[in-house]
Amino acid sequence: MSGVKIVKIKDYKENVREIFSALNFKIVSGEKILIKPNLVLPREAATGATTDLDLISALIEIIKENKAIPILAEGVGYEFDSRVFSILGIDKLVRKHDIQFIDLRRSKTFFKKTPSPIFKKIELPEILKEVHKIINVPKLKTHMLTGFSCGLKNLIGLLPLKERRKMHLFGLARSIVELNLIIPTHLTIVDASVIMHGKGPAFGDRIKLGYLLAGLNVFAVDFSAAQFLNINPLEIGHLKIAKKRGLIPEDQKRQTKTEDLSVVLPKNRFYNLLYWLVYFFDYLQEKITKKTSIAWWHRRFGMRPKLDIKKCHSFPACRDCLDICPVGAIKKETGLDFKKCAYIRCLKCFEVCPYEAIIIKGISRPGQNNG
Ligand code: SF4
Ligand code: SF4
Prior knowledge:
Layout: E1 5-8, H1 12-23, E2 32-37, H2 53-65, E3 69-74, H3 83-88, H4 90-97, E4 100-103, E5 109-113, E6 121-125, H5 127-130, E7 133-137, E8 139-143, E9 147-149, H6 151-154, H7 161-170, H8 172-182, E10 187-197, E11 205-215, H9 218-228, H10 237-244, H11 269-289, H12 294-301, E12 304-307, H13 320-324, E13 330-331, E14 335-336, H14 338-341, H15 348-352, E15 358-361
Parallel strand pairs: 2-3, 2-7, 3-4, 7-10, 8-10
Antiparallel strand pairs: 1-11, 5-6, 8-9, 10-11, 12-15, 13-14
Helix pairs in contact: 1-2, 7-8, 7-11, 8-10
The protein binds iron/sulfur cluster (2 copies).
């Protein structure tokens, strides 16, 4: 049995209990349980970009009710910085539940030898040595590089930059499969409350769905999640490899509840080549200068908001973008200071502007249904 459970969201705590019971997932008192959500960028769950904090809260409460110890861990994308967590409200969530939060970009690491041809010696966060179980809580969305992002792809957030870069250089599809064989997860609960399609994972269009998908086998969950979006899983590189390697249960059945859903998959050949070149250049550069330039490439060529003063009829009378910017990057005297915005790029100003005076430059511009 593939054992993928699809539930309509009513109340997250009720839903999580239903999932635990249906999958016979047990929490033992005293266990340390790592929760790995998708909180890699500063856009709320309602945009389709990140895991819903209410779902994470429900999970934390249920783990605590079972007298186990929840630990939340995430590492933001390299084009962002750790302020992402306070912008998303993680600081408050951690205080409210009084739990440990690990910023994986700053955590200690260790090296582990593996039989994987890609990760012969992989650098992993120390916390993996401590925890008894991992609950993977990804967001369901499309992805410019991998086509599709769910539980398997979500584990990349555990890795330091060098390992992420290695994945790009060796091919993301193969590396994602290998990574999930090295780090087994015990339960995957996919947040499909609002999904992102088109130019995911950061700036695509959103669709409200209102479902959770869950299972003990992350390969089976991702296969079902693709089918749930009416995507042929075998069009997704890492799922095709997983299927070939016998990691998808043979009895995996299509159980979509979304026949009318039309999800746009990003065309990713150009982006894959571009990213490969950037990561290759970065690898060479680091060998010579000991410095990495990934974030610079993202800032220079990635999505960049710009204030079009001609369209901004109300500036400075209207203060909407000034008030909403979490890092004070917009001032009435100086307009939008991209240096302050560069590591955040949350698009809140773009979403709030009533006059479409915030325009977006660069590749991976947001879709129509994004504001
Ligand atoms: S300028 Fe706009 S995109 Fe940049 S951080 Fe501020 S609100 Fe977010
Ligand atoms: S929200 Fe739009 S109209 Fe208002 S100040 Fe900002 S750019 Fe101008």
